[in-house]
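User: Hey, quick favor. My workstation is busy. Could you predict this chain's structure for me?
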Amino acid sequence: MEDKNYTLLPEAAWSLLVSWYGLSVGSRSIVKNVEEHGVHKKLRVEVYLIELKMCVHPNSINIKTYSFSRGDLISDIVTVMKQQFKISDTTECRIWERDFTGKYDLLTDFQQTVSDAGIHGGQMLMLEKKNPDETWPRDKTK
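Assistant: No problem, here it is.
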């Protein structure tokens, strides 16, 4: 509960506190986003991030999990996935989401937010690297 278990501060106030007192060793700030919620687009602080499963095609057994904000962009997820799976920043990649039926759908708008893309906690995202011969592996297996 807000003000009992945690207190929200504007970024400017947090920055002042950190400049005055610093952070404890090993600690970091926890940034929370304000998101539009519901039909009437009420603003709400996103207290809990969503945890997503990630893998790289074709090795869907090597699964990693990572937490994202609903306001993160698909491009942010691709960046994290490249870091987590040690893929070069310059490698061209596509990202797929697995729906509830197990079917993978290509995400094409990298500037779309997690929320706008309809991605929910627990979903699997698969990164696909482009082959040097200029073909996409999943195009061959469809």
